[in-house]
Amino acid sequence: MCVIIVNKDGKKLPHGVVARAMAINPDGFGIAYLDGEKEVIKTMDYKQAFDHVQSGRPYVAHFRYTTRGATNLSNCHPFPSGDGVMFHNGTISVPTKDDQVDSQVIANLVGDMDPVKRKMVLELTDSRFVRVTNGEVEIFNENNFINHHGVLYSKNNVLTGKLIAVYGTLRKGYGNHSYLNSATYIGSGHTFDKYRMTGSGIPFLLQGKNAKGSSNVRVEVYSVNEWQLKSIDRLEGHPEWYKREKIGIRLDNDIVIGAETYIINDVSRHDDGKYFADFAEMREPVRYKYSTSRYSTPTHSVTLFDGVQETIDEEESIVDAISIPESIDCPDCKSTSVYDEWEDAYWCYECNDYKQPKAKPIC
Question: Does residue 236 carry a catalytic annotation?
Fold first, then answer.
């Protein structure tokens, strides 16, 4: 998995994008600043990671998801590569020692090559590479990056989807959670503003913030695609019964993001005067043996943003859904290649390798 972010202008990233990057890739962080000589920082602390990517300085950064090697600081990107450092997103079959990662081997291999040969070698694969030398950036397989408002991302999964916050039966351990089995779990937290949640069995979040008896309601946040969102909208009777509205969420790591949740329209009918802060107070969740998600929110505390309302209201302008066919013809051998959502690439059984998809936004 992993994601490389090339931010040459030091732009502030949408907070939902940062939350996705941290949640989907929780196994370490590294950054090379472009305005200082060889300033490289690695950390397992996502408080520091957040501060770095939102510093306003130009950089190349990497959030890691472990596929090979141990999850530790040594295996965080970037790796020394000649007179520079190199970031990698992808998997390459090369011999490694002990808990060493393939990315480190490749970085060592191409470090002292002349630039033309280095480019030829690295672009033999569909992996994405970025090399930084004294503030100068080389990008390999650049056509496999996504340009989003002038910032390059090596994977589209931190950009796609709609963030929704669920507080009742859609949460883990409850009857409707199956609607979110294939969604990306971003993290748990509470509503930034206080709401009244009532209901016997079925919870109702009532219209109106910070009213008497209200609380910061416990929620889980997910990134869903267009089809998942439509399915949940039907379940919730949006917009006639419940109405999906954007509210502020403070995640457990103190990041404040905007997400949409379902608020009941008919307050007078469902306001019985008994309010809860957590659906678990009404009904205990079922403790399943197996988790539905690999993703987890980093537990490190992140300083709360200034200008919270701007954070909640900001328009991320992200792609809500990406059209990706289930299979394509392999560009090399022409046999059928099948899409693997975990690697965000097509697996060709004949070539025994991944092929990067050319995803197109749904218009």
Answer: yes
